[in-house]
Amino acid sequence: MKKYIIAIFMIVFALTLSNARAHHTEEKAGSGKVKFTKHFNESLFRITDNGEFSIEILPDDKEYKIGKDVIGIVVHDRDDSDAENADIKINYKDMKETPVIKEKGDGLYIVSNLDIKKEGRWELNITVKKKKKEDAAAFIFPDALNKLLPAGKYDSDAVKNK
Questions:
Q1: Mind listing the pLDDT tens digit for each residue in 72-128?
Q2: Which residues contact residue 143 at a Cβ distance below 8 angstroms, ignoring those fewer than 6 apart?
Q3: Element (H, E) at 4
Q4: pTM score, whole prediction
Q5: How far is CA 26 from CA 36, 43, 84, 152, in A?
Q6: Do residues 103 and 84 make contact, with C-beta atoms less than 8 angstroms apart?
Q7: Is 161 helix (H, G, I), strand (E, B) or coil?
């Protein structure tokens, strides 16, 4: 009898654990539930349109020293892990020079030939493709430079209108 009670307890425990894991996975995959990390206070941050990636732009003259006229882009995937070996595309209207993007590792990409301080109102579009996932985010300038979020964890609902 004691063996049956222990066996039933173990089955109930296993089912409860399995249900908890499934619920956690569903919550993480649901829209607005995935949290992405913004690492720096003086960076620009967006979650891509479909919530597949986060993009953090590190201007060259803020908290980090990357180089003159160079920016960094930190990309995380839906699990908030570094998005390494991703294909990054950058474009904006009237683009004269093609940005040069070099991967440095740990989700960091260095971009040259891109001036985010240019005059007027304009939109910078960044597309990330990794394996079969592709998603994009837009940064509207100069507004993006004036509405910086502090470092921390954010979901798409928290940064949608920022």
A1: 999 999 999 999 999 999 998 888 888 999 999 999 999 988 877 788 899 999 999
A2: 121
A3: helix 2-29
A4: 0.76
A5: 16, 30, 25, 23
A6: yes
A7: coil
